[in-house]
Design brief:
mainly alpha, Four Helix Bundle (Hemerythrin (Met), subunit A), 51% helix, globular
Length: 175
Amino acid sequence: MSRSASEPLRPLTEEESEASHFAVVLERIVRNALAQVRDISDVDLNRPLKLPESNTAFVLATHLIGSAEYWVLELAGGRDVQRDRLSEFRATGTRAELAARYEHWLAAMQELLPTLPNYRLNQLACVPAHYHPALTKEPMTICDALLHAVEHCALHQGHLELTRQLLGYAPAGPQ
């Protein structure tokens, strides 16, 4: 049973997966991120800020969805997403390309997470050492990977809000 991103979390029924809560939160974050770029021109989307070590809005949006694809679809879902993390930081493109990639990810995430059995959340995720975000050396579970996806996507969604304003656009407001 799927819920919209705007609905508050509620207790699960017996047939729902705990991962469906992750789906609701991730959809809300990703839709908010997409709202940040919906009316930014393609030129501004790729325009560097006049700040040291900053990224373009397109780079931030690309990195956000690249990390979501990896942490959710690959680590939690077992799909091979062929992520090239370094190229995310050199990416250029259009709003239309971002929107298509985001919608593709949202559909795949909504197909995966609500059907992910609860027992899988406690299974270990196969995270390469160079991707390990935890402050501890403890092995990561699928649940840890999904929590990291929420944390990382929310962080970069906030970066997109600030970048939008630094580019001279008004706050995006509610979607």
